[in-house]
Amino acid sequence: TQLLEQSPQFLSIQEGENLTVYCNSSSVFSSLQWYRQEPGEGPVLLVTVVTGGEVKKLKRLTFQFGDARKDSSLHITAAQPGDTGLYLCAGSLGYHTGGFKTIFGAGTRLFVKA
Amino acid sequence: NAGVTQTPKFQVLKTGQSMTLQCAQDMNHNSMYWYRQDPGMGLRLIYYSASEGTTDKGEVPNGYNVSRLNKREFSLRLESAAPSQTSVYFCASTMGGWNTEAFFGQGTRLTVV
Is the minimum CB–CB distance between B88 and chain A shorter than 8 Å? Predict the structure, then answer.
């Protein structure tokens, strides 16, 4: 069974603090995506990382793909209330017959207090 | 810019009733998916359609059927609803192939009593 574990499951912080969310697996991924989901909405894609060791920045969010492409992290600098939401990582695995399969982590629920 | 549209947004069913969840995408994507989301369990794949004319089982297909009506539309049917199917259902689409970046609908919150 391929699993994608996210930690922490829940995080409540004050506005202005920094935080890091982790996504770990024993599987090697072809690519990995991070999504943010707000209540009553579907997940929205934030970023895709493909290369081992890759770092991508999206304003105050920094995403890193592990060298071995088994793990990823999301770092938020100076968190704001608008960052509140459920953060999901999703890893894509190649099928031996071709095509790709995507597995999702359970998510990290972030609450940023003003 | 509609993206992925799901209907209905909310539904309450009695045990044993049937219903169909509708999904349509306007991005000319090849692949479409149905997920369910339950607290603490993330998104679990029910069925997917890699391309028009094909459908395959995902991780939790029991109790569901799907139809890829055309390239735009992918429906999910519950033939005899059970309380265990109470969940939030999401439809998603991707370009397909190596591109697995998914676009999701707003979800259908289904309660089976």
Answer: no
